[in-house]
Amino acid sequence: MIDIGAGSLMVGLFVLFLILRVPVAFALGLSALAAMWKLGFGLDLVGDLLTAGIGKFSLLAIPFFILAGNLMGRLGIADRMIRFFRVLVGGLPGGMGLVGTVVCLFWGAVSGSGPASVAAIGPMIIRSMEDDGYTRAFAAGLVCTGAALSIVIPPSIGLVIYGVLAETSIADLFIAAIIPGLVCGALMLVALPFGRGNPSSTRDLVPDPYPGLSYGAALWRSFLDSFWGLMTPVVILGGIYSGIFTPTEAAIVASVYALAVGGLFYRTLNLSSLYNCLVDSAAGSAVVMLVVAYAGLFGWVVTVDDLIGQYSGTLLGLSDNQWVILAVIMLVLLIAGMFMDAVTIMFICLPIFLPVMRELQWDPIWFGVLVMVNLAIGLITPPVGINLYVAANITRLPLERVARGALPFLLTSIIGLLVIAAFPGLTRVMLP
Q1: Where is the TRAP C4-dicarboxylate transport system permease DctM subunit domain (predicted)?
Q2: pLDDT tens digit string along 111-151?
Q3: ω before 155 within 30° of 0 (cis)?
Q4: In what helix (H) or strand (E) does residue 167 lie, and over which residues does it extend?
């Protein structure tokens, strides 16, 4: 009879639970519990491991960044920013496609969560892009891809988790990810010519947010209307980069700032909107933190059964060429992204990949940004690309059509991944 190790049993059960459509958090927990039973550990250890997994100060950034993003969306701050960028670049070639790309990148510096970004800014951008002659599926694909970059462009929930796991400066990760995020966003513009249906017949349908005003006057008016929202990334990233507060404290500052803008300047904050934001943020945070908690059990078994040593040793033994090993790691992450969410992938794969990174003396900052770009691609790859599901719900289109609309952007994202892998210096441009 074949004796399967506890770690291998856990991985096999996890895959089986995923096939049976068990929620990811419970698939992690149940498979880890089975492995712990096989190793001879009692359930009295589970509570300590769960609390240790989520009892990290840095992880407080996750619920507060989620709350800040929800507040920005519900309090009208997103609408004002979209109007500003529509006036600023809407008349350039690409029209609302260019506006949508810029807004998605800018919103990534507010939200930190891909699905939340799709839900917050997707309806308005998709509707405006349709008016400008783009197909609905293509517009949804653009929003899915641009919103996916929310886990690359700081402040990023993914970078917070990577920083905790890799014991790397989260502030440095935030700064290092700015240029690579902009590169991926710029590459999205290459796909815009492929999304137009019949622009000549619909161009005039795009509403003018400030009718009767000249370009300069409309731009100034829209800037004044959206000023406090546009200052959000400046406050967050400026405070982190100048050392005024840490990335974790920045998440709290972002939430308080959003409340102040909505309540004092835009006067859109009321008890109903605040309640809805708190409920949505609590639900979103609970999903993420439940995965984090059960992933702690999973990671503990990985360590105790020495799966890290086994799998990392196997990776290092594949080739003497570090680029081959990097290609294998990136391929594993791309495939995993087709079936699992980014948080789960990080907690399962990074304990195996990080020792390889250290052995090959790769820059942990560069590797972290590269992992985030890879995981962003996973948000738009079926069958479990969560951004696609959110966009399909918004547009009432079948998931298959939204996925086809995202295909050109999937190709540009892969090109961006290759560029960042080939030029590690892109992550060091803005670091001191």
Answers
A1: 12-426
A2: 666 776 777 777 778 888 887 788 889 998 998 898 888 88
A3: yes
A4: none
